[in-house]
Design brief:
- This protein is an alpha/beta fold and about 500 residues long.
- It folds into 2 domains: about 15-325, Rossmann fold; about 345-495, Alpha-D-Glucose-1,6-Bisphosphate, Chain A, domain 4.
- Helix content is about 35%, strand content about 20%.
- It contains 14 helices and 19 strands.
- The protein has a 7-stranded parallel beta sheet with strand order 3-2-1-4-5-6-11, sandwiched between helices.
- α8 packs across α9.
- It is globular and about 70 Å long.
């Protein structure tokens, strides 16, 4: 009768395409795979798409990755065209006067205009809880302004407001964990008495995805929080219990300003001052859920504080940290080494192992593994960097064995990675110049299938800024013989041990 098999099938709903900005960030990087598991097509909008190359979901057939820093409205409009909903997960999170607030407003305005032109049906935004707009910190006020700007073109905005997010790798969680681990006695600002309603990252993601199936959430402000409301000093005590530490002594004093307390946080924890400052500034605000609209529209039982902390710590212990705060943010372009003064220290070693085995050994540097040699010198250098406001060695690494483009390794950043071929790191420590550390692998001339041999070249490059940079290079040059030779031998030893 001419009836095809396809026409006998029930009509399927139109496939929705969802846009996600900030897919390299902490929340966005976890949101994308959940959207995929829920059956959506996902269009990731990333400033640095290469950061996504090693994500397990990157090759999913329903993922499209587009490059944009949200500054070009015309190109952004084309990227958003065809998307039914768009998650806006972009925050500057840098305390530099009003610069970060102005930039957040501009990017939100660009996104709102592009969404309107592209026909996006709604924007979903994750902001912050806080009572009384006039009393909010500068950071939380900026979040409120972004909410308004996103809705300025008439596209409905679903706003989620959350307090501290508890999850492995989140900046707030790491601040809490490191403070409790490292300080048995804490002299703290008075904000430790402020009440908060922390929420597990799993609960945040549940509600953010669930809203796509609940039309009534469109255009609403949805406050989300965990099962408990506690002052921060109780959170610290719970963290100590879950870490199986002795009871922490907490002494609140009124004289520690946000500036002083954020400086202290950046000294003790892996989180930099620029990120710690807006976080610390916002801690003076009581951040709790004040209405039950979210639960009425999307009933869900969130985790308790203790459950959320325990789950996060378990993921850290099992090296199952999917995303981490330190990966987010722009990566400065590689410096132009042409022209000017550039110092170079190049060393090559032959290793009786395959390029794959050598590359794996190289990728273990930093974090708990150390740097294969002269760890005391690295620790001294990290301590010196911390004193002057740099990251030091506190950031560690996300995973003990695997690294991705854009990831932090102590005070280095991965700016180039070609698996089994090369790894390039850029120094983020405080320096009077720009430093690059590069590892390059090639099969050695004597390489055979039965007797593999890899030539590894490690090159340190430094482009000084002024006379101080030149003096710095010559002051550290004597230590290269100890540090770099030791690293090469350590990498060789590790790689060859896997070839036996």
């Amino acid at each position: 009768m001419g009836t095809t098999q396809g026409s006998e099938q029930p009509t399927q709903p139109t496939q929705q395409t969802i846009a996600v900005t900030g897919p390299t960030g902490y929340v966005g990087g976890r949101l994308v795979p959940i959207l995929l598991d829920s059956g959506y097509e996902v269009r990731c909008i990333a400033r640095s798409p290469r950061k996504l190359d090693d994500r397990e979901w990157r090759s999913h057939q329903k993922v499209i990755v587009e490059q944009s820093d949200l500054s070009d409205i015309e190109s952004l409009t084309e990227i958003l065209r065809g998307c039914t909903s768009a998650y806006y997960l972009v925050h500057s999170m840098e305390a530099s006067g009003t610069d970060y607030a102005n930039r957040d407003r501009q990017l939100a305005s660009n996104f709102a205009i592009a969404s309107k032109e592209a026909g996006v049906e709604r924007i979903i935004y994750l902001g912050g809880l806080g009572e009384g707009d006039s009393l909010l910190s500068e950071h939380l006020q900026s979040r409120r302004e972004v909410e308004e700007v996103l809705g300025s073109t008439g596209v409905p905005v679903t706003v989620f407001r959350a307090a501290m997010i508890i999850g492995s790798g989140s900046s707030s969680f790491e601040i809490l964990r490191y403070l409790v681990e490292r300080l048995p006695v804490m002299i703290t600002p008075s904000w430790v008495k402020t009440e908060a309603q922390p929420i597990a990252i799993a609960d945040v993601l549940h509600w953010m995805v669930r809203c796509l199936e609940v039309p009534e959430t469109t255009g609403e402000i949805l406050e989300i929080g965990g099962a408990d409301i506690e002052p921060y000093h109780d959170l610290m005590r719970t963290m100590a219990q879950e870490l199986k530490l002795t009871k922490r002594i907490i002494i609140p004093v009124p004289v520690l300003t946000p500036r002083l307390s954020s400086g202290w946080v950046s000294l003790v924890t892996p989180v930099s001052y620029r990120i710690a400052r807006p976080l610390a500034d916002g801690l003076r605000n009581r951040v709790v859920v004040t209405n039950d609209l979210t639960q009425r529209l999307m009933p869900h039982e969130p985790m308790s504080v203790r459950e959320a902390i325990r789950k996060a710590l378990t993921r850290i212990e099992t090296n199952d940290v999917q995303t981490r705060w330190s990966v987010a943010g722009p990566i400065p372009g590689d410096p132009d080494w042409a022209g000017g003064t550039t110092f170079e220290d190049k060393r090559t070693i032959d290793i009786n192992a395959t390029p794959e085995q050598v590359f794996k050994a190289v990728c273990r540097i930093g974090g708990g593994h150390g740097w294969y040699a002269a760890d005391i010198l690295w620790k001294v250098r990290g301590w010196m960097d911390t004193i002057v406001g740099g990251p030091g060695l506190r950031r560690g690494r996300r995973d003990p064995d695997n690294i991705e483009y854009g990831e932090a390794l102590d005070f280095w950043r991965v700016i180039g990675i070609q698996h089994n071929e090369s790894l390039t790191l850029r120094a983020e420590m405080k320096l009077p110049g720009t430093a690059i550390l590069d590892f390059h692998l090639d099969p050695a001339e004597q390489y055979t299938q039965d007797s593999p041999c890899t030539a590894m070249t490690m090159t340190a490059r430094f482009r000084p800024k002024g006379i101080l940079g030149i003096l710095y290079w010559y002051s550290v040059l004597p230590f290269h013989g100890i540090v770099f030779k030791g690293m090469l031998k350590g990498i060789r030893r590790t790689a060859e041990s896997t070839n036996t």
